[in-house]
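Below is how a single chain appears once it has passed through the pipeline. First comes the sequence as given, then the structure the pipeline wrote out for it. We keep one example in the README because the format questions we get most often are answered faster by looking than by reading.
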Amino acid sequence: MKHIVLCGGAGTRLWPLSNAKEPKQLLKLFQGKSLMQTCLERNASLTKEVLIIANQSLQIPTQTQVEELKFENRVSYLWEPQARNTAAAIAMSALLSQPDEILLVTPADHLISEDNKYQDTIIEAQKLATEGFLVTIGLKPAYPETGFGYIEHHGNEVIRFTEKPEKELAEQFIASGNYLWNSGIFCFSAQAIIQELKQHAPAILAEAEQTVKEYNQTGTISLEAMLNIPSHSIDYAIMEKTNKIKVVPSSMSWQDVGSYEALIAHLEPKAFSNKTIQINCLTDTNFVFPSHKPIALVGIENLIVVDSPQGLLILNKGLGQNIKEVHQEIKKHYPEFS
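Resulting structure:
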């Protein structure tokens, strides 16, 4: 089985900690390792080869982190000049693989514990993939999250997908017991996903074929070729349309760490300590991500304060999902800090 690692996430809801120069998956916040590094370690015993797909601007830090794990001999790279969503990345990875090769596609920026449950889940997905199915991993929801996609299912059968429901609908999903969170982890053979792309997203496949042809000839991907590939998620392009879909339900501990509230819940109190920090303020109501200068809070509650070279963020807890809109304004008016 071949591990396809998607490193295209920008982590905009964790701005300014996560930014274009150092996105979420490369931040070393988890016992001195990044999410990408823990992703590689978690799948090392399950897969033989690794293909990392990332933006070409992140080539040096990505390769450095791979070398820190001493994984460089098993990892190859596909550097994108411009991200074109998951369908494009997966199409290219399938075209660069042997037809009968089983591909395990994972985002680089998820936090997963309970390794035994994870491995059991992937082994079950691999078995279904060898039978010709496109397999997605579904997670038993812990609460009515409105920022995730949901999968209605019966056993391994997928009934329908619902993207980011309103809270009331999410609560109904949880109460029914028939819905799973969509993890964004997939397993299928290269030839199976190519066949479904040919049927449901021929334009993506055709342009990806031209891009891979150029890559095989030159060793690089031009911006023009990349921009010619339609930008769609693999869920929208294939998974919501195919009749070959299966889901593997899992109860493993999983977080996409998509907000400061989620990040804080999984950090050790000293996750940001270093020799230059004079004040590390961690209380029951406020959380401060310290910078190279003292930060003091007096008489205020329920704040998250993030000070970095890219900007200063002061946030009321519970509003973490709104940072995506803030980042859009930063990118528009101050692109050098995005």
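Residues 260-337 form one domain.

See the next section for the split statistics.
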